[in-house]
Specification:
The strands form three sheets. A six-stranded mixed barrel has the order 6-7-12-9-11-10. Strands 17-25-16-26 form a four-stranded antiparallel sheet. It has a two-stranded antiparallel sheet with strand order 1-2. With about 900 residues, the chain is an alpha+beta fold. A hairpin with a 2-residue loop joins β10 (about 245-250) and β11. The chain is globular, with a radius of gyration of 35 Å. The protein starts with 9 loop residues before the first helix and ends with a helix.
Length: about 900
């Protein structure tokens, strides 16, 4: 028979064999195999499978729905229609419970859809490149002995080309560098970022060419620009052939636009705006840096031959770069797949990335919210199904078998779940702008086959689970007992229901505790003393000139003019900014180990401008100190070397030829995120200090020069200060636009991911608690209805309203107590693991757990108590008339 070795999905064949008559099966399988082959060639395997299942459903739906093999009876579409009618009538009859189920499920599915859309977007980065499976980013492991101190994708300029020339499996290589640039268009200066790549860049990466020549980078004065920038500066006009004047690192150059590309900004890890030939990077760095393997300043990408073992390629690369296998201090090379760059947080580089832990957090939260909703659905539906015992008993007495009843219950749940999915779709479209604004994203909603399959699968899963639970409850009751109203455990949910309610409460408590801890940690970070005053301080980028003398002269002139305004307190230049990691210098030691120390070149007023605290010695003073030999260090460096008196010590380095002098020690300040400990830091006031002993470096800016300026102003109205700064800047340097950032905003941006996590947890907690509360109201109302006669009898026998309320509330409060016993240790474990990523963190307080537990406790007490009081105050005559 056809289908034994068919390409058709196995499950689909089994469905056909189960439902389809034997005399039709052969022809059906033959036709479907032909359709599947055609679909697979034109649309791919996934779409072919989806179309096959859709055809199976279309075949089975009109004539055959279910087959009972024991009796060999067939049921046609009239049975389906009957089940749908019964399901619809049941939902309309019990509107209150149907509404609670629909609202709870639709809200949970809405939140899950948001998470699904976000994860789907983030996991599709860099997948449009045709040769993407064979493209790798070259990274290095920073080692200290056998210990890996970190990994960085910022590597030496010649590294990729050297691997291409000397490692057989490496077929091609390209470099990717960035630097700020001033672009003159129609005599107006604009601050932009220039990207430098090899001519092979567009042969390796598949960025779509919109206009012009794909070989634009073969000539040193030709460039390509992104379609976004073309539209920004040239509107609807073609930019091809237009000349642009660039000022890069103090040098002027003119380039002709030869190509416009689509930079696929929303799905590419590489930012591309103005793309220049790599040869022009010589405007930024010296010839020594361009030719040396010791200076890490850009990213290298290589193409590895298809089918090659990456481990073997890495081994060959390391052998090429380090022929001596006994060198334990060699910095090893690793290859990072292009498609993993966006999801890799451990390797630092210039590319956009998203911490994959965020996916686990968001996916886990979506699962928790969905679990609360499904638990709600199950507990409420299974409890509510006992009210329908006479209906089920009557149907059984009239001849309906268990399979038919089970199918009806599952179909009813499927219809409810499907309706909830449709409502969730509408809510997703409505709330998507709010979701994007909350997370600062650009997630788009485009329904596709995967989304439809997800919704159908979710509806089917809910129907199977909930229908199965209801079946287990109802079908065990004999029809005669159902008609008589004799139901086991009436008025008391069984062990399964109690367990599910406890689980629901546990999830809610965990989310509340998590929300409080994340909020407390973020508040702690925002209020923690950073070691410098971030208020009333701005950061201004300079023009990127690499000439130290010229830049120093420009800084002195600007400083003199600015200090004429009494609102300006202090001004100081700096090599590094507060947005990127600071420069790491490497000093070889006598035993050939390497010390990596953070370095920054600053002005004499840096301490006053940043409001740093000096704890020993002096800061730079041009009248008393020699800037070519004197340095200032921080406390972390003193602790690192274990010095007793830092003013009598020197930075250890085997190749340091010139003596230097430590003149002061500043208190540790956080020049990077609080997620990192304060590293040992050297502050210098001259670009040549210590440079003779540097054996390697990793940096975003080089050579050592002033690339930033910090300006502190007094409190008061800000607009007038900014206007004065802008006017003064334009007078002194009209060819460079005045751009600035408030330092407190820069610091806040460092914790954007944590803020997003906090907002996501807040939203998920709100969803979860609201859904749990809805279920609790429904479950309480059911309990009151089923115990109405009992309440009436107790009232007649003299029980007070308080006694009855206490009796009805006690069971739920016990379940809350059990949930707290489970949630507290689990919450502590989760919180402790999350806080472990912060070197500076809050202490977990017992008060936090009490708030989480008591919040749910009072929510249950209020919800159950109000309905209990209402039930207890009902006239006993009405209660005893019930049923």
């Amino acid at each position: 028979m056809k289908g034994q070795n068919s390409k058709l999905p196995t499950l689909g064949i089994k469905l056909l064999k189960w439902f389809c008559p034997d005399e039709l099966l052969e022809g059906v399988l033959h036709d479907y195999e032909e359709q599947y082959d055609e679909s697979e060639k034109s649309r791919g395997r996934v779409k072919a499978s989806f179309r096959f299942y859709w055809n199976v459903i279309r075949l089975l739906h009109p004539s055959i729905l279910f087959r009972n093999k024991m009796s060999n009876r067939w049921f046609n579409s009239s049975l389906l229609k009957n089940h749908l009618v019964v399901s619809t009538r049941s939902m309309m009859k019990y509107k209150f419970y149907s509404a609670i189920n629909l609202i709870g499920l639709s809200l949970a599915i809405t939140f899950s859809l948001f998470v699904f859309l976000f994860i789907d977007k983030e996991t599709n980065y860099d997948k449009f490149h045709q040769n993407g499976d064979n493209i790798y980013r070259v990274a290095i492991e920073l080692k200290k002995g056998e210990e890996v101190m970190g990994r960085s994708a910022v590597t030496a300029i010649p590294l990729g080309l050297k691997l291409k020339d000397e490692v057989a499996s490496v077929q091609a290589a390209t470099r990717f560098a960035s630097n700020s640039a001033t672009i003159i268009i129609d005599n107006q200066p604009y601050q932009e970022t220039a990207h430098f790549v090899d001519s092979s860049f567009f042969e390796i990466f598949s960025f779509p060419l919109i206009e012009g020549n794909a070989e634009a980078l073969n000539l040193k004065n030709h460039i390509a620009i992104s379609s976004d920038k073309a539209a920004q500066y040239f509107g609807d006009e073609s930019p091809i052939g237009r000349s642009l004047e660039f000022e890069i690192s103090g040098s002027a150059a003119t380039f002709v636009i030869q190509a416009v590309i689509d930079n696929r900004a929303v799905e590419s890890s590489l930012a591309l705006d103005f793309i220049l030939p790599i040869g022009q990077y010589a405007l930024v760095v010296s010839e020594q840096v361009m030719a040396s393997l010791d200076y890490a300043v850009l990213e290298n990408y290589v193409v590895v031959q298809k089918g090659s073992s990456i481990d073997n390629v890495i081994a060959a690369a390391n052998t090429t770069l380090n022929p001596d296998p006994t060198d334990d201090h060699f910095t090893g090379v690793i290859l990072q797949p292009l498609k993993s760059i966006h999801l890799e947080a451990d390797i630092t580089g210039n590319s956009f990335y998203t911490d994959p832990v965020k996916f686990l957090i968001m996916g886990g939260l979506a699962l928790l919210v969905l679990s609360v909703s499904i638990i709600n659905f199950i507990t409420l539906s299974s409890s509510h199904s006992l009210i329908r015992m006479k209906e089920i008993g009557l149907r059984s007495a009239m001849g309906a078998n268990k399979v038919s009843i089970r199918l009806n219950l599952m179909l009813e749940n499927f219809v409810t779940a499907l309706m909830a999915n449709l409502i969730a779709l509408g809510l997703t479209l409505l709330l998507l702008p709010f979701f994007n604004q909350l997370l600062g994203l650009e997630v788009l909603f485009t329904p596709n086959s995967n989304l439809v399959l997800l919704m159908l699968s979710l509806s089917a899963l809910i129907a199977l689970i909930n229908g199965g639970v209801q079946s287990l409850t109802l079908l065990k009751i004999k029809p005669l007992n159902s008609l008589r109203g004799v139901i086991p455990l009436i008025g008391r949910p069984g062990f399964v229901n109690q367990s599910l309610i406890v689980l629901q409460f546990t999830i809610s408590i965990v989310l509340i505790i998590g929300t409080i801890i994340i909020h407390s940690q973020m508040t702690f970070i925002q209020k923690k003393d950073l070691g410098f005053n971030q208020n009333n301080l701005i950061q201004v980028p300079l023009d990127g000139n690499t000439d130290f003398v010229a830049t120093s002269s420009f800084v002195d002139r600007v400083t003199t003019e600015l200090l004429n305004n009494n609102r300006i307190i202090a001004v100081s230049p700096s090599m590094n900014n507060l947005s990127e990691p600071w420069t790491l210098l490497e000093f070889a030691q006598e035993d050939e180990t390497r010390e990596q120390l953070t370095y920054n070149l600053v002005g004499a007023e840096f301490m006053q401008t940043m409001n740093l605290e000096l704890i020993l010695g002096d800061f730079f003073d041009p009248d008393r100190h020699n800037p070519s030999t004197d340095i200032v260090v921080n406390e972390a460096l003193v602790r690192h070397f274990g010095w007793q008196n830092a003013l009598e010590e020197q930075i250890p380095g085997k190749y340091l030829a010139k003596p230097h002098r430590i003149i002061g020690v500043v208190k540790d300040f956080h020049f990077s995120s609080l997620k990192n400990k304060v590293d040992p830091l050297i502050l210098a006031a001259n670009n040549e200090t210590l440079m003779d002993g540097v054996g390697g470096l990793s940096t975003y800016v080089w050579p050592p020069n002033y690339y930033q300026m910090y300006i502190r102003f007094s409190q008061g109205e800000i607009t007038s200060v900014l206007d004065y700064l802008s006017e003064t800047w334009d007078e002194i340097n009209p060819n460079t636009p005045f751009n600035y950032d408030f330092v407190d905003s820069l610091v806040e941006r460092q914790y954007l991911e944590e803020k997003r996590s906090r907002d996501i947890v807040n939203v998920s907690s709100a969803f979860s608690i609201f859904i749990a509360w809805l279920g609790l109201i429904g479950l309480t109302r059911l309990t009151m209805q089923r115990r109405k006669k009992e309440v009436g009898i107790r009232k007649v026998l003299g029980s007070s309203v308080m006694n009855i309320t206490s009796l009805l509330s006690k069971r739920f409060l016990i379940l809350v107590l059990v949930a707290n016993m489970i949630a507290w240790p689990f919450s502590y474990w989760l919180a402790n693991n999350w806080l472990a990523s912060f070197p500076y963190r809050i202490e977990i307080s017992l008060f936090t757990f009490l708030i989480g537990g008591l919040s749910v406790f009072f929510l249950v007490l209020i919800s159950v108590g109000l309905q209990s009081i209402s039930s207890a105050r009902t006239n006993p005559v009405e209660s005893l008339r019930y049923e």
